[in-house]
Amino acid sequence: MEALGLLMHGFAVLLTWKTLLLMMTGLVLGIFVGVLPGLGGPNGVAILLPLTFTMDPTSAIVMLSCIYWGALFGGAITSILFNIPGEAWSVATTFDGYPMAQQGRAAEALTAAFTSSFIGSLVAVMLITFLAPMISSFALRFGPPEFFAVYLLTFCSFVGLGREAKHKTVISMSLGLLLAGIGMDTVSGQLRMTFGSAELLRGVNFLVAVIGLFGISEILLTMEERLALRGHAAAISLRVVLSVWKDLPKYWVTLFRSSFIGCWLGITPGGAIAASFMGYNLAKRFSKDQDSFGKGRIEGVFAPETAAHASGTAALLPMLALGIPGSGTAAILLGGLMVWGLNPGPLLFVEHKDFVWGLIASMYLGNVVGLVLVLTTVPIFASVLRVPFAAVAPMIVVSCAIGAYAIQNAMFDIWLMLGFGVVGYVFKKIGIPLAPFTLALVLGNRAEDAFRLSMIGAGGDLKVFWSNGLVGSITTLAIVLLFWPVIDKAFGSVTRMVRPAKA
Amino acid sequence: MSNTDIEIVVEDPTAPEADSPEMASVRVVDVVVSLLLLALALTLGFDNWRTGAGWESTGPQPGYFPFYLSIILGGASLYGLVAAFLSRREASESFVTQAQLRRVLAVFVPTVLFCLATQFLGLYVASFLLISCFMCLVGKIAWWKSLLTAFVFTAAMFVTFDIAFDVIMPKGPLEAALGR
Questions:
Q1: Which of A79, A178, A179, A326 is 20 to 30 A distant from A187 in Cα terms?
Q2: Closest alpha carbon to A110 in A96, A91, A125, A127
Q3: Chain B residues with CB inside 8 Å of A97's CB?
Q4: Could you report the per-residue pLDDT of B84-107, keeping only the tens digit for each?
Q5: Treating both helix axes as pointing N-terminal to C-terminal, what angle do A353-382 and A57-82 enclose, rounded to 10 degrees?
């Protein structure tokens, strides 16, 4: 129970007025970002990251993770009141949330959404509290070969298990890895792919790319849409909250199932989007009254919201324990860690105890504060949508530029951000996924270093990746996952060939 | 239950028309992007081959990884090129319509101008210009509202970053004249 003691210590670190104030600021900014069209979790965190550069790492991560929680809460507001999912993972929430609002039960639906988000995150945070220290202490025994194998596993599972066209995932990932390699080679000190440009010497900064890819491109995409909207306003009264909470125990199976799905998909790179749909579909399948789904059933709000939040939170587990982000937002937080001079990975739990446990404690606290905050302030945030987009768009552009410049104090980065904005816009429209790109860009150098260090250690012998049981099984698993679609198909045809023979 | 009958209504007068003619299909863009990626892969691949893409006794040379990555990237984009030519389904999808493109450019062009202005006038002056002009000209919002919003936002940014957090932004002649 060392974890509990450390967690208590984490709470002690957090419970100062300054941190609580930062938390509130982060949550408000996050909800704001989640409600606004064309912005969401990863964009919000990326744009607001520069605000935290001058803070100490603990305050910074507390504020950033609160922005993230806030954005997760904010997405539910627009999907229920306006039938506009602020995020892709809120799509499933609109199925039953919006009909409820139309029937005049908006307050109920919102309470259900916020409460289930809270439960989902709570389950995932508890998982992190107990699992992360164990995984990281296990990972402390890892050498470069093991780390490379884990990175390989991450990359391969993206290609093998992703839903997009395989060649598009490969394009996205190899492009990310290539851009990560620009600049000085860390092992030999030689310059690579700089073409004599002094600006490229620094390399392509991960955060600059993210701000362009998610911030600028999202504004371009939003402008294409028709921005008119009609929705319901809602105020939540204490009576409604209590009546929804009283009914909660009835839905414990749904809540538990969704939390489990969310945690599982959050750790593996399945993501919150898949989790929310799976949560919804399973709740529907196991329900006795399937037809009532989609017509304003409260369970249809509980199921996807719990799963989405559990997965969004669980995505931080591999980031903290192994230094491998489970989602786009986690990747940006990881980029933040590096800016503050922290080296993500298992050593974080040993070298920066205060920081890690402060972060985990802030997940508990941020969720409680966030729940209270959204329940009381929904009407204000719903009216944020009245602000015309013509006023919001240029402000977002300015924030993006400030963010991109602040990272390395380079004007070149502002132009780079603009370029990535166009790339992101085009990629999103032709279906090249951005998540593998982000992941490759943030992990590229670390993966290459791990590979080359293990090569130096083993004298250039590739057999080192099968030198013991642990690294061997991870490497093999990675290769199996890479070719999973092929293996799956082969298995399918074999069973099909066998079955008619039996019959 | 509660007072849910109050509706929030936001109009969008300059929304793109639904029946606007198509500017490019997904297939065309797919082909163009694949060609660009292929060119990029070739350039980077050549550069890395020059750096040294061999295998030494202690493992790969600096250019080894990027060289093979360029080959993977080139291969995947070639596959994409062929797939785009063969596909029937994507041919019918529209990448962008005329009206949509007009709206996208209405944001993109000011953003480019903003970046240019940042280089010469400094970030704060540029953001004041961007917000006020964009609200007034593109959003058709009353000029005094636009100017006021732009001023308040820019001032807030200046106070937050320059004074409170000491994050230095590019500055121009105006800041120099004011002695900041």
A1: A326
A2: A96
A3: none
A4: 888 766 556 778 888 888 888 888
A5: 30
